[in-house]
Structures are given as C-alpha cells and as structure tokens.
Write a structure and sequence with these properties.
Elements lengths: L1 H18 L3 E4 L2 E4 L2 H18 L1 H27 L9 H8 L3 H28 L4 H25 L7 H19 L11 H7 L3
Antiparallel strand pairs: 1-2
Helix pairs in contact: 1-2, 1-3, 2-3, 2-5, 2-6, 2-7, 3-5, 5-6, 6-7
Length: 204
C-alpha cells in the first residue's frame, strides 16, 4: 500500500509538470490545468508522512524532485533531437512540452520548498498536538500551498507584462485549498505507522 502511495505521488508530480503549460478558466479564475492534481500531492505527502514519518517523507520529496529534473532535461533533449522526415508536429511538440527555464525554475523551487514545509508542519502538529488527523492536513496544506503559490507565481511572472501577480496568487491558492478540503478524508485511509518507527523517524 505504501509503495503504491509513493508511486502515485511521484506520478502526480510528473503529470502536473507535463500539464502545467495549459491555462484553464475555473469560474473566472485562471489556473494551470495541473492545479487539480498538483494540489492533491500535498495531501498525498501527508499520507506518506502519516505512515512513514518525517524523514522518509522528505526522502520521497527529494526523489520526486529528482524525477522532475530528469523530466525537464529529457524533454529538452527530445526537443533538440532532429525530427523524422515527414513529422509535422515538431513546433507543437516544443510549444506544449518545452516550458521556459524560468517556468521550470519556478515550478521546481516552489515544489521543493513548499513540500518540505508541508512535511515539517504536519510532523509538528502530530508531535505536539497529536489528535485530529484532518486538522494536521488542513494546517500543513494551508501553509504549504500558500508558499507554493507565492513562490511559483512570483518567480514565473514577476515583471512580465500582462500578468496580475497578486490575482494569480489568490486564484491558485483558492483552488488549491478547495481541493485540500475535498481530499482531507483520504488521511483516514492510511494507518499510522508503528510507534517505535515513528519515534526514530521523528528524531526522538
């Protein structure tokens, strides 16, 4: 079960990066198409944290980070490869998958920082307060998704003409928090890890 959960988490991170280049309109709010599955990853990493502890959750985050770097590098490699004769979609391929390095930097930075914050807040709540699994998810995601939205939008679009940075941050944060609220019951599907293992993981 845990291996499956880790696999789904990493897959969601990669899917989010592939689909992030398409903006969509949600009740008047412009967000990347990736926002739905990406927002879910914050709850997924909480599930991993709940089962395996803080240290292992961080390791999973670093693994997903490395996978996303590999994805970004290989996409650039695939774009640079000469297309086969008669292939008509080279420009479309590059346009859809070849995000600018500023967007890639914004995405990777926001992901790494916000995910690590999520793990720390979740672990702190579990260690200090203990009760209310749903509250652990809500507290950690409330902070981490705000950090993610601010970092990504600021790095990607600050100073770029035509972008309302504050409006984009508010819109992304609202959608991410809505998905967080819907996904919170998932935390009750995961049994908490053994007490002894948790104490080791948390550095007691």
């Amino acid at each position: 079960m845990v291996i499956l959960l880790i696999g789904i988490y990493i897959a969601c991170e990669i899917i989010a990066n592939v689909t992030a280049s398409k903006p969509v309109d949600i009740i008047g709010i412009q967000v990347p198409a990736a926002v739905f599955i990406y927002a879910l990853t914050f709850t997924l990493v909480d599930l991993i944290n709940e089962r395996l502890g803080r240290r292992r959750a961080r390791q999973v985050i670093y693994t997903a980070f490395a996978a996303n770097i590999l994805l970004a590098l290989y996409i650039q490699f695939a774009i640079k490869l000469p297309p086969a004769e008669g292939y008509p979609l080279q420009e479309a391929f590059a346009g859809v998958l070849g995000s600018t390095w500023r967007i890639v930097l914004a995405s990777l930075t926001a992901y790494l920082v916000s995910s690590l914050i999520d793990v720390e807040v979740f672990a702190w709540w579990r260690r200090r307060i203990g009760r209310y699994r749903w509250a652990r998810v809500l507290a950690s995601n409330t902070i981490s998704t705000l950090v993610d939205s601010v970092l990504f939008i600021t790095i990607a679009f600050w100073g770029v003409a035509g972008y309302d940075v504050a409006g984009l941050i508010k819109g992304q944060y609202a959608v991410k928090m809505a998905i967080t609220v819907v996904s919170m019951p998932l935390i009750y599907l995961i049994r908490r890890g053994p007490v002894g293992a948790e104490r080791i993981e948390e550095g007691y």
